[in-house]
């Protein structure tokens, strides 16, 4: 049996306090993708050395000394720090972060890296109109991806967030008032991206960008709440259509040939029933985390066996639940059978349309979910373009090569 160490949050807190004392408040140096930074003891282990490598590479290619850049939804400031290194003393980075809990770490990281003169911290939210809004602020932890760190959003509330009133501006208003035009804007605003982009229409229209990349989790959140046939989902799709129409008309006015690509990274299956996997296991003589470790996702459960007999007992307990244990061939085909079994010794996947409630994802059911068998029709992702898409592009793994070829073609077209 494999022994998996478990570190208590109390032990981690003691470690952080000791490190704080030893470093006399100067933080700890950490290297991320070749960039050296100083982070507080609570955060120096939160980011692996290759964290968001593709995003770092994009910033390195896009930002030049003297540029201005916006980090919208800055969190604890990691990307703002990198942006400041790239634009240099003559540049300007604005970090927008309305969550007071995140602001505390953000301001400290700016000071630790002696970047007060290059990074301006704005404790405001951005949207499509100025005023005041309710921010559902979550606690900020260094356990990235943990259910205890739900993020903060103007869009959605859950049982771990606290509503607070925050000032709101728009990108266009901010740029006009401060006479600044960012070369790069990074957005991470928990599903509110569309509103930020709509509030940046004038700034984007006068810019010289050859490539504009936008990401939003808004439709994903709506699908979870309403299901595939929900009125909000239909309204949001219509909104995207209208926004693309405005972008197309703006391109025509400027005499530009607009290339458009729409990509979803997964599908969505309407939920038909729920099952209580955790409750089924609670009555066993083998217990977690003593006898086995488990991660209960909304559509599957992963297990690491620690004591003899735990595997057999758990497998027997889950008999009759609509789902299946994934065999070695399936795990290898899906790319999750690692040599050290970090993803789990065994994985139990629920049937499409069946939702695990409760799970580590929440206590209440949702209307739709993803994370089922990729062969299910509703799990298919979408790639649409007004440009020809080769027949060979049939998997998410194929998309990067296709888009890189398109960027190269664009470079040749504008040369």
Descriptive overview:
The chain has helices at residues 9-22, 53-62, 78-87, 100-112, 171-178, 193-198, 201-206, 218-226, 231-253, 277-282, 310-317, 328-333, 396-414; strands at residues 28-32, 35-39, 68-72, 92-96, 119-122, 125-126, 131-137, 162-169, 184-187, 261-263, 269-270, 273-275, 292-296, 300-305, 323-325, 346-350, 354-356, 368-369, 383-385. The longest helix is centred in the middle third of the chain and has 23 residues, at 231-253. It contains 13 helices and 19 strands. It has 3 domains: 9-216, 3-Layer(aba) Sandwich (Rossmann fold); 217-263 and 382-415, no CATH class; 273-377, Gyrase A, domain 2. Mean pLDDT is 87; it is low at 1-6 and 143-150. With 415 residues, it is α/β, with parallel strands linked by helices. α8 (218-226) runs antiparallel to α9 (231-253). The strands form 7 sheets. Strands 5-4-3-9 form a 4-stranded parallel β-sheet, covered by helices on one side.
């Amino acid at each position: 049996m494999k022994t998996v160490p478990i570190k208590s949050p109390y032990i981690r807190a003691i470690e952080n306090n000791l490190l704080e004392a030893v470093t006399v408040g100067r933080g700890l140096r950490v290297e991320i993708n070749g960039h050296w930074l100083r982070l507080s003891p609570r955060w120096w282990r939160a980011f692996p050395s290759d964290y968001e490598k593709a995003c770092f590479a994009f910033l390195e290619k896009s930002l030049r000394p003297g540029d201005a850049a916006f980090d919208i939804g800055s969190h604890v400031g990691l990307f703002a720090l990198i942006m400041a290194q790239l634009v240099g003393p003559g540049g300007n980075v604005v970090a927008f972060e309305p969550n007071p809990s995140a602001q505390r770490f953000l301001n400290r990281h700016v000071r630790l890296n002696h970047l007060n003169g290059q990074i301006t911290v704005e404790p405001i939210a951005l949207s499509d109109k100025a005023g005041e809004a309710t921010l559902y602020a979550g606690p900020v932890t260094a356990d990235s991806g943990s259910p205890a760190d739900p993020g903060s959003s103007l869009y959605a509330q859950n049982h771990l967030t606290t509503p607070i009133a925050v000032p709101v501006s728009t990108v266009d208003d901010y740029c006009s008032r401060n006479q600044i035009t960012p070369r790069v804007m990074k957005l991470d605003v928990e599903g509110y991206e569309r509103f930020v982009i709509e509030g940046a229409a004038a700034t984007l229209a006068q810019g010289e960008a050859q490539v504009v990349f936008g990401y939003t989790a808004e439709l994903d959140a709506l699908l979870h709440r309403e299901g595939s046939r929900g009125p909000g989902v239909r309204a949001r799709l219509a909104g995207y259509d209208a926004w693309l129409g405005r972008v197309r008309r703006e391109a025509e006015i400027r005499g530009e040939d607009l290339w458009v690509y729409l990509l979803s990274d997964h599908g969505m299956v309407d939920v038909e029933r729920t099952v209580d996997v955790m409750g089924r296991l609670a009555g066993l003589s083998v217990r977690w985390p003593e006898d086995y470790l488990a991660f209960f996702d909304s559509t599957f459960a992963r297990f690491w066996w620690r004591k003899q007999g735990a595997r057999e007992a758990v497998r027997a307990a889950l008999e009759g639940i609509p789902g299946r244990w994934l065999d070695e061939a399936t795990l290898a085909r899906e790319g999750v059978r690692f040599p050290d079994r970090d993803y789990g010794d065994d994985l139990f996947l629920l049937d499409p349309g069946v939702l695990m409630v409760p799970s580590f994802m929440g206590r209440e059911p949702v209307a739709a979910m993803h994370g089922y068998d990729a062969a299910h029709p509703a799990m298919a992702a979408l790639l649409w373009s007004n440009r020809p898409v080769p027949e060979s592009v049939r998997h998410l793994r194929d998309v990067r090569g296709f888009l890189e070829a398109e960027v190269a073609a664009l470079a040749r077209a504008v040369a």
